[in-house]
Design brief:
Strand content of chain A: 15-25%
Helix content of chain A: 40-55%
Structural class of chain A: alpha+beta
Shape of chain B: globular
Shape of chain A: globular
CATH superfamily of the largest domain in chain B: P-loop containing nucleotide triphosphate hydrolases
Strand order of the largest sheet of chain A: 6-9-4-3-12-15-14
Structural class of chain B: alpha/beta
CATH class of the largest domain in chain B: Alpha Beta
Largest interface: A-B, 54 and 65 residues
Radius of gyration of chain B: 21 Å
CATH topology of the largest domain in chain B: Rossmann fold
Strand content of chain B: 25-35%
Distance between the termini of chain A: 60 Å
Oligomer: heterodimer
Number of domains of chain B: 2
Helix content of chain B: 25-40%
Number of helices of chain A: 32
Order of helices and strands of chain B: EEEHEEHEHHHEHEHEEHEHEEEH
CATH architecture of the largest domain in chain B: 3-Layer(aba) Sandwich
Number of strands of chain A: 29
Radius of gyration of chain A: 35 Å
Number of helices of chain B: 10
Distance between the termini of chain B: 35 Å
């Protein structure tokens, strides 16, 4: 019997098309993941696409989406008998429970596993694709395919399948099976958001309890480097093994449960399964058998029929009401509502967490959070109910009555649309309520209902409407609901794919609107016209489709196309005016959009922009080292027109020939296409100009002699015309203009224009990106790291803006006046030299002022964004105090912070001027003592750059970036520590360590040591900050600061006054300065941490305590320490241990430890035991307890102390 | 009102000729449309009910061109399709209210009165607030009847209305129908001969899309007077022999024996007895004739 059920199940699955669809789906997804790396989850870099890690990861990712497939196969296998009522036939036969349940289960299991073999098959086929990137495809080891499939996918099919099977067998309701699948999926996604939003460093329980594997994979492989990802499979040990055993066990338990509880009798099954249904049937039958027997029928009352516009309206209302009532009676709809609320509340709860920082959940963040999760549901409802509404009369066979009702042809279709709109509007309203509710929960009461309304009802609703109209059109036209679903979902999925492959035109991507960003400073600002016209365009087109749908709508029993066309012909006269109207609107708005996005502005796809970059590099890279003069003086008059998002201006550079030879050609790069005119104070002529004027070569009639200076005059400007199809320049806004020296002519070839992404370079047939020059490179050591075209400059500008705004540029305000209804500001740096790095800002600002000694502190902010001002001021003061005392004097008399719109999210240090995005500051909120005060940290970091970056500048060679970023990071860490204490720093540094280790795991080129860093932010920020802080701890903060002070004094303002460019400092001098202050026995730290990649594996093995007679406690602590050196790909070689490492004993609970004993011990062996006597009862002990060293498993360094 | 159908033809894409040049006039009364399954009754009904178009032919309802002025027809129409479903989660009263609005009963009071009267008449009053999906077959059929009678229709098309009704319900329905059947055109399509005999002053038999007979039931019966004979035979072999020699109208099993009815202008002898013709005989005879002609 078992075999009969088993083979029946297998045969059934072999016959049903869905099995093949699942197989092909997995095959296709994984094929594309390998064959088109853009598509897959592995991404760019050097990780093998068919390597062990990649294949494991495919298995996990597919597992997330596969939940529903497993539910579909296992759930239906047992429900089939109950849906088709064959159970009555089945269970009256003598079959054993084992045969029935076992056969069905085993058959489903085998069928599911077979369908899932599409994953390895797809990967394998992908490796055969001729166009795939074969440098990232290895001759695969068969085990790489088999092991992940067995240990991830098969185990998952086993336990999820058993679980679904159990629930299906015991409840016998398909709805509950799917609900369970959806609930699991939902809980999982919520778990993921919680995990990521709280930046949890917990990796044990989250990994073990993860049924699907994303967090499990994160726990196991988050720090895996390229070398590891290409050789290691998930090991059958540790958390991975525990996880598999746990969930495998749950699967077994589910099977046991179904075995124990499943009744094998019709009576028991029906009593439970259809008790309610049977009860319902019974009562109706009761009604049936007591008719009132009056044999003579009474006459029916007379009614009057009225047909006219009022009736037409009443009919529409009644139809709409009946269709709304239908949706509101649907259980799936309420399931969607519950999910929507759950997601909105969950995401809303984390709206006030931005990148781990606690901020106030201002309305734009809250809308983003609640709407972000809800949008998918809006579209699901549109897809689902467009189909249900269109097909409902046919599906229920009510069409005969319905279609012969005396109503206008459009009324029926329009009522369906209205019902769908009503439901969508309700969902949007619900989303808004969730947002307001979560703001209240978070204690933020400044509800901007207008912003909710605009975002949800003015921007989102029309887009949902467009989609709904499209779905209804499709369902009206096609002959089958499911074909319709296929088409609608296909369009939904296809769009981002098309976009990715360069089809970016809003005018032909159905329902597409250009991207926009709401900002508190600007509202929807300049995005409004493009949004408005694109939405109008698509609304008109889909409304036209709606009219066509009404014409083609089925009415009557003849569904053939000739009949429908005949009907459409009869309806057309009435519909024609509307069709023409919509067509005109579509044509007009489309034309207007085209005029703006393609004629007034050049339409550039990402591909075109990359082509331009590549052409530039190919054509002009040869001039890279051409001797060019340096800018030594900048003087400009700039007019900003915020209301037009434009500026123009003129000015001059003083150029000095700082080379040893005469210069006869001046090369100008105009990367922003903002240079309008160039002139020199001597005769010259244009030699060549590249297309778009990106690169222009001028010849001087009289060459510029060594040491000689000349003036270069220019006119610059940027004019916004109309609107673009996306890629609006973020620099120009109605409120919060912020552009920098990029908009001015650059002297010579600019390496900043080069493409960085290795994959894109390969596509453009460019060679690998040229590495930065080595330290000591004769040419590049004389080039300023930040601006190749200058060393230091004098600066003066007059900047004007509209009368309601304030314009800011580096320098001291010497004069401001009004003229012709505009405001003018004159800024000058006087005799103080500054880096050639200037910016212009304009906005409707409020100003907060303060003073620290003789330094003016100013914050220019948007009224309403007062939250962080005191914090910023406090940080600036503390920073100034610390930096002046420890590094040297501040070179300016002012320090200013100004807010700019969140179109870009960073803060950037210009001379005495720090533009600071509203996206990362101004709304910070430090609620708990454990919260990290990012605003304080970022402010101190940017202030630190006034020393490290504006006094000390390195040459354009490898390593130099750390001398600005690492040192600013270190400076900020010290300022932060003074305020928040060492314990808080420990928590902060744990995150820095985590970010560094994840950064190196995701490295797509190779990881350099800190002093050789090129373009690896995780090295110069996180690793740099960590090792500097550790060094300060090992040799003393004073010594590190003394080294920095000395180094700064020696190398600050390099090349500031020389008439010949000399060498800038690099990390060789920096390391030397550190070594000078480092005692001999600690020198290895510099070698390890700065000049190599060294990783520790420290671990507390055991700790026991005995009380001694003198009331003291003796702790016996055994620790393990290992140390390895890694190369750029992550290959490790063990190193001999000869290191000082903290050994500590603590009181207090985990994560709230107070040190009783902390001492650096010299460790030379892998395992060592220490005996430590402390005064109080110890609770925790360990090695490197504060994670000062780079350790991939940071949370096993401490252990609970146990009594002996 | 009178319904004039002339030259109506319909061929479905699969080649089935549902109506073949059918011409028929239906006066202001109950009209029975008899025919076997697949005769083209439903096609004719749906065509008159504006749900599909014929390939050729015309239908006039007094001055209204049914095929062109569909909405005019729909205003006067009460239609009960042969097979229909309901919206599962609606109850009868809400659904009838809705349909009453759709049929242009704009006065709230009239609507209420009519809906309640119909619920009473169709004996659905007690179940009026139950979901339609919970209705039994008979209840659903009664609901269908109720909706067809909303708004005092002038043209009522009922396609197999008594299928699924128990005898008492059938009776009630036929009473109801005949009580409103005055001054109204009612087309009752059925394959149950009894229905027609009880109710319809006029009738037609159609089969294979063709009109076989039209007239008053009494006239058609009269024409057959003394031409129907019956005999009881015991075995299949005898039956076969009779079928070869006579115009067999029908056979019935009575107590294990075959009762055979034949058509004959004169006494066929061989033990046949004369019997009073029934409408059923008319029906079968016409079908039989058609088969032999074809």
């Amino acid at each position: 019997m078992f075999w009969e059920f088993f083979s029946f199940e297998i045969k059934f699955r072999l016959k049903s098309i869905s099995t093949y669809v699942y197989f092909l789906l997995w095959c296709l997804l994984n094929f594309l993941s390998v064959a088109a790396q853009d598509f897959g989850p592995v991404g760019n870099g050097k990780v093998l696409l068919n390597g062990p890690w990649s294949i494991s990861y495919f298995n996990i990712i597919d597992g997330v989406y596969g939940i529903i497939i497993i539910a579909a196969i296992f759930g239906t296998s047992i429900l089939r008998d109950f849906q088709r009522d064959t159970y009555q036939l089945l269970f009256t036969k003598p079959i054993s429970k084992f045969a029935y349940l076992g056969g069905r289960w085993a058959g489903s299991f085998v069928a599911t596993v077979a369908a899932y073999t599409g994953i390895p098959v797809g990967v394998f086929l992908g490796t055969l694709a001729p166009w795939a990137d074969h440098s990232r495809i290895a001759t695969g080891h068969p085990w790489w395919y088999v092991q992940p499939f067995l240990s991830i996918t098969v185990v998952q099919i086993f336990f999820l399948g058993s679980l679904f099977f159990c629930v299906a067998a015991l409840t016998r309701k398909i709805f509950i099976v799917y609900l369970q699948g959806v609930a699991l999926f939902m809980i999982y996604i919520i778990g993921l958001t919680v995990f990521t939003a709280t930046r949890s460093l917990e990796h044990f329980w989250s990994a073990i309890l993860d049924p699907v594997g994303i967090m499990l994979s994160d726990s196991v492989t988050r720090y895996w480097t390229v070398a590891e990802k290409n050789t290691l499979l998930f090991p059958w040990s540790g958390v991975f093994l525990i996880n598999r055993l746990l969930w495998g066990g749950i699967g077994v338990a589910a099977l046991g449960l179904v075995w124990a509880l499943f009744p094998m009798s019709v009576e028991a099954l029906t009593a439970k399964a259809s008790g309610k249904r049977a009860a319902g049937r019974k009562t109706t039958e009761d009604d049936d058998i007591r008719p009132v027997r009056s044999l003579v029928a009474a006459r029916l009352p007379k009614v009057t029929q009225v047909f006219g516009n009022a009736t037409g309206w009443a009919q529409l209302v009644s139809l709409t009401r009946i269709r709304i009532s239908y949706i509101l009676h649907e259980i799936p709809f309420w399931a969607i509502v519950v999910l929507l609320i759950a997601f909105a509340i969950n995401n809303g709860y984390y709206a006030g967490k931005v990148g781990g920082e606690n901020v106030w959940p201002v309305t734009y963040l809250m809308v983003q959070a609640v709407e972000g999760s809800a949008t998918l549901f809006f579209y699901i409802v549109a897809t689902l109910y467009a189909a249900e509404l269109i097909w409902r009369d046919r599906d229920t066979h009510f069409d005969g009555i319905h279609d012969s009702l005396p109503m206008r042809d459009g009324a029926d279709w329009i009522s369906k649309l209205l019902a769908l709109c009503f439901v969508e509007v309700s969902l949007l309203f619900l989303t808004m309520i969730c947002g307001v509710f979560m703001q209240t929960i978070a204690g933020y009461y400044h509800y901007e209902l207008g912003e909710y309304f605009k975002e949800l009802f003015v921007v989102t609703f029309p887009q949902v409407l467009v989609f709904s109209l499209m779905a209804m059109f499709v369902q009206t036209v096609v002959s089958n609901k499911f074909i319709g679903h296929g088409i609608v979902i296909g369009v939904f999925i296809l769009e981002p794919v098309l976009f990715r492959y360069g089809f970016e035109n809003t005018l032909y991507l159905p329902g597409q609107t250009p991207p926009y960003i709401y900002s508190d400073m600007n509202g929807y600002g300049h995005f409004v016209p493009a949004l408005f016209w694109s939405i109008t365009y698509w609304l008109a087109i889909t409304a036209l489709l709606g009219v066509i749908s009404i014409a083609l709508a089925r009415r009557g029993s003849d569904d053939s196309w000739p009949a429908r066309f005949r009907l459409a012909g009869q309806r057309m006269p009435r519909l024609l005016p509307a069709a023409i109207l919509f067509l005109c609107i579509a044509a007009a708005s489309g034309t207007w959009y085209f005029w703006n996005a393609h004629v007034l502005n050049e339409f550039q796809t990402a591909q075109i922009r990359r082509d331009i970059q590549a052409d530039y590099e190919r054509s002009f890279k040869k001039y890279e080292k051409l001797p060019q003069p340096k800018i030594i003086d900048v003087d400009t008059r700039i007019n900003i027109y915020p209301e037009r998002r434009s500026f123009d201006g003129s000015g001059y550079f003083v150029l000095q020939n700082k080379t040893a030879e005469a210069i006869s050609q001046i090369h100008i790069t105009d990367s922003r296409q903002s240079v309008r005119e160039i002139g020199f104070d001597r005769p010259f002529h244009e030699v060549s100009k590249s297309p778009r004027g990106l690169y222009t070569i001028y010849a001087l009639d009289q060459p510029l002699k060594p040491g000689e200076t000349m003036k270069m005059n220019f006119r610059v400007g940027y004019e916004s015309h109309g609107f673009k199809d996306g890629s609006e320049r973020p620099e120009f806004a109605y409120n919060g203009t912020f552009f920098d020296s990029d908009y001015f002519p650059a002297i010579g070839y600019s390496r900043d224009v080069e493409l960085g992404d290795p994959l894109r370079r390969k596509e453009e047939k460019l060679p690998a990106l040229e590495e930065m020059a080595p330290r000591g490179d004769p040419y590049y050591q004389t080039v300023n790291l930040f601006s190749a075209q200058s060393d230091w400059i004098s600066y003066h500008t007059v900047v004007s803006t509209s009368s309601d705004q304030i314009a800011i540029s580096p320098g001291y305000l010497s004069k401001s006046w009004e003229e012709n209804g505009r405001r003018y500001f004159e800024y000058s740096m006087g005799s103080t030299k500054m880096a050639d790095f200037f910016s212009f800002l304009s906005g409707r600002y409020a100003i907060k002022r303060d003073r620290w000694n003789n330094v003016n502190l100013e914050i220019y902010y948007l009224p309403g964004h007062e939250f962080d001002l005191d914090d910023m001021m406090a940080s600036a003061k503390a920073g100034l105090a610390y930096y002046e005392r420890n590094f040297g004097p501040y070179q300016f008399r002012q320090f200013r912070i100004m807010e700019f719109p969140r179109y870009r999210s960073f803060a950037q240090s210009f001379p005495n001027t720090v533009p600071y995005s509203e996206g990362i500051g101004f709304i910070g909120r430090v609620a708990n003592p454990d919260d990290i005060d990012f605003t304080y940290f970022v402010t101190a970091h940017e202030l630190g750059h006034q020393w490290w970056g504006h006094q000390l500048i390195g040459g354009q060679v490898i390593g130099s970036n750390m001398m600005s970023e690492t040192l600013a990071e270190y400076s900020a860490l010290e300022v932060m520590e003074k305020k928040y204490g060492a314990d808080q720093m420990h928590k902060f540094l744990r995150h820095e360590l985590d970010t560094y280790l994840r950064g190196r795991a995701g490295e797509i080129r190779k990881e350099p040591p800190l002093t050789l860093v090129q373009r690896e932010p995780y090295v110069w920020y996180q690793k740099g900050g960590l090792v500097m802080y550790t060094l300060a701890n090992y040799i003393g903060e004073d010594r590190v600061n003394a080294a920095l002070k000395k180094f700064l004094r020696q190398y600050s303002y390099a090349n500031a006054s020389d008439s010949r460019s000399g060498a800038y400092p690099d990390t060789r001098q920096f390391v030397a300065a550190l070594r000078e202050e480092t005692p001999p026995e600690m020198q290895y730290l510099i070698t390890d941490m700065f000049e190599s990649i060294v990783l520790y594996d420290n671990k507390a093995l055991s700790a026991t305590v005995t009380q001694m007679p003198d009331k003291k406690y003796k702790v016996t602590l055994t620790v393990q320490a290992r140390k390895a050196k890694a190369d750029g790909n992550g290959n490790e070689t063990q190193m001999a241990l000869n290191d000082y490492i903290d050994i500590g004993v603590f009181s207090g609970k985990k994560d709230h430890e107070q040190p009783l004993y902390l001492k650096k011990e010299k460790l030379t062996q892998e395992k060592q035991t220490f005996s430590i006597v402390v005064d109080q009862i110890p609770t925790r002990a360990g090695i490197d307890p504060y994670n000062k060293l780079v350790d991939r498993v940071a949370d096993d360094n401490m252990i609970d102390v146990t009594k002996q | 009102m009178a319904l004039k159908i002339s030259g109506l033809s319909k061929t479905y894409p699969n080649g089935v000729k549902a109506l073949k040049n059918l011409t028929l006039t239906i006066g202001n009364n109950m009209f029975g449309l008899l025919g076997p399954n697949g005769a083209g009754k439903s096609t004719l009904m749906r065509t008159v009910a504006t749900l599909q178009d014929p390939d050729s032919g015309e239908i006039w309802l007094d001055e209204i061109n049914v095929l062109k002025q569909k909405n005019e027809v729909r205003k006067l129409l009460g239609y009960l399709p042969q097979e229909f479903g309901v919206y599962p989660k609606m109850n009868a009263i809400d659904m009838l209210q809705h349909l009453a609005v759709m049929k242009g009963i704009t006065s709230k009071g009239e609507r209420k009165e009519m809906v309640e009267a119909l619920l009473q008449q169709t004996n659905l009053w007690n179940a009026r607030k139950k979901a339609l999906s919970g209705y039994s077959g008979g209840m659903k059929q009664r609901f269908g009847i109720a909706q067809a009678l909303l708004a005092n229709p002038k043209l009522i098309i009922v396609d197999e209305p008594t299928a699924g009704l128990d005898p008492a319900e059938r009776n009630r329905f036929l009473n109801l129908l005949s009580s409103i059947g005055r001054n109204v055109t009612v087309i009752l399509s059925t394959h149950i001969v009894e229905d027609v005999r009880e109710l319809c002053p006029r009738m037609a038999i159609i089969s294979n899309g063709e009109l076989l007979l039209e007239g008053a039931p009494s006239e058609t019966l009269h024409a057959l007077h003394a031409k129907v004979w019956t005999k009881v035979v015991a075995s299949d072999a005898e039956l076969q022999a009779l079928a070869a020699g006579f115009n067999v109208i029908s056979t019935h099993l009575v107590g294990g024996l075959h009762e055979v009815r034949i058509f004959s202008e004169s006494d066929p002898g061989e033990g046949f007895k004369s019997i009073e013709p029934g409408l059923e005989d008319v029906y079968f005879l016409n079908l039989f004739k058609q088969q032999t002609v074809n």
